[in-house]
Amino acid sequence: MACLQSSLDPLVEITVAEDTSRDDQVTVLVSGRPNKEEINRFPQLEKLIIPWAGVPEETFEVLKAKPAIEIHNLHHNAVPVAEYALMLMLAAAKNIIPMDRALRLSNWQLRYETGTASLLTGKTALILGYGHIGRVLAKYLKSFDMNVTATRYSVKFPQAEDRVEVYPANSLRSLLPKTDYLIIALPHTPETDGLIGEPEINLLPPSSILVNIGRGAVVDQGALFHALKTKRIASAGIDVWYNYPKNEESRINTSPADYPFHELENIVISPHRAGGLNTDDTERLRMSHLAILLNAQARGDEMPNRVDRQKGY
Amino acid sequence: MACLQSSLDPLVEITVAEDTSRDDQVTVLVSGRPNKEEINRFPQLEKLIIPWAGVPEETFEVLKAKPAIEIHNLHHNAVPVAEYALMLMLAAAKNIIPMDRALRLSNWQLRYETGTASLLTGKTALILGYGHIGRVLAKYLKSFDMNVTATRYSVKFPQAEDRVEVYPANSLRSLLPKTDYLIIALPHTPETDGLIGEPEINLLPPSSILVNIGRGAVVDQGALFHALKTKRIASAGIDVWYNYPKNEESRINTSPADYPFHELENIVISPHRAGGLNTDDTERLRMSHLAILLNAQARGDEMPNRVDRQKGY
Hints:
The structure is a homodimer.
Chain A: H1 2-7, E1 28-30, H2 36-40, E2 47-50, H3 57-63, E3 70-73, H4 78-94, H5 96-104, E4 124-128, H6 132-142, E5 147-152, E6 159-161, E7 164-168, H7 172-175, E8 181-184, H8 198-201, E9 209-212, H9 221-229, E10 235-238, E11 267-269, H10 280-299
Parallel strand pairs in A: 1-2, 2-3, 4-5, 4-8, 5-7, 8-9, 9-10, 10-11
Antiparallel strand pairs in A: 6-7
Helix pairs in contact in A: 4-6
């Protein structure tokens, strides 16, 4: 809170949920999953800010009755997610999971095996869903002299953006055969559901590496499992899944998928941590981005990061 | 061999060990660990090229009787080692080893823990031994807007090199308290033996991360173990060790250190793989760098990468 206050214009007044004395003055609510009562509590409410990027299904539902309320989200997590995506690319490329596991058992054999590691330098990356995260990631990848390509739904013709070739989403199949690293940064929408299935994976080179930091359902889990199991692709780094813990108790026994990905050597698996939830670093970024939105409102400027309710992001 | 030949000047003639017909014409030998007979076999020998960076102790020994023979080495591995160093920094910063291990057991608890991940963005890196590897690594780190500092033995006064602050080696202790990521890229010499011990580690901030891709003996193993065990520093990524397999049989049962690093959660351990030995990518880089040295010889230019026998690198 102190961190947020220090970045705010003096014009912005903050109140907290416990304080009901100014409910009729509140124009902006910061809440990820408000229920109907919370929305109805503020008669002057103009804008809801979700303090992260992905808008929960139930929040769209709750706001259906209030079409005039704008939904905004925060992209402060583009930096941690892009760092995490690069970590997964490198960890998968260098095969660090089995290396670490074997050496902990005093086994050095992998040191002497051929063909178990790839470079990023000079290779081609394809980023699906070229938005906030993709632009940060592209900056890192260019430092490796990678050839960075990308797709974006809103692009109609191929275009160059700061040394990145951005293609329309329907160019996917023609791009896959040239892709060494496929990075999925797409939200889950009807258009992206199961977008990467067996036919798409079969277009990738056998040496390719797939990283998903978007949403699990964009990649068909059976197709991914079989491609890794049969070495149809070299490896993968996966942070987003098909099954999530439904409550605190199930955090210790929720298998992330319906296939035994945990048996595979050529995958790095991670419990949806790319946003770097709960770290001091992330909270600092979140507060400074929240301040940008609140300051815009206070100054009468257009508030950035408006969510398109139709598209869902 | 075809790959090497394609990068060579027509002036360069190559012969292989099995062919003894041209032994008296050989002026350059490419061999990592030649014995005395191999050296004496070539009466015209002017130069030995070690096809990697670190010159083996026994090779210096063998060549003691031949002070006129120049030793050269290859730094083609600067790119794979720098990529590997970044992988270890990110893997340690994001705590991926315990995350992957727990999720393979359907355990998501780490997802909800605080303070287990750090950003690179905006932090300060200190690279000890700013040579070929450090310069490549610095290029990557600058893409994260990191503040990159470094030390080099041959520097007498602090100087800026392409946005990196390079300090004399004796500035170490004044640099450590400001360091978030300490990357050790030093060779093992009498000056660097045990350079990072308990007093040095105690100067690092508790949130700092240590990565060693130089040589194990530069870091005191007991001091490192205790610092990690007691969380005196946050985590480490270690590719270079204290004990190595002495033969093929012992590859499955050689503990890399005298302390149980394998019991620690806050470390990524790797069996000296940063050079990316044996991958196609690395061999391509190695051959193109070897060609640069051989072409220089053929043209009568000074051959690059001469090793200083006194300094040992």
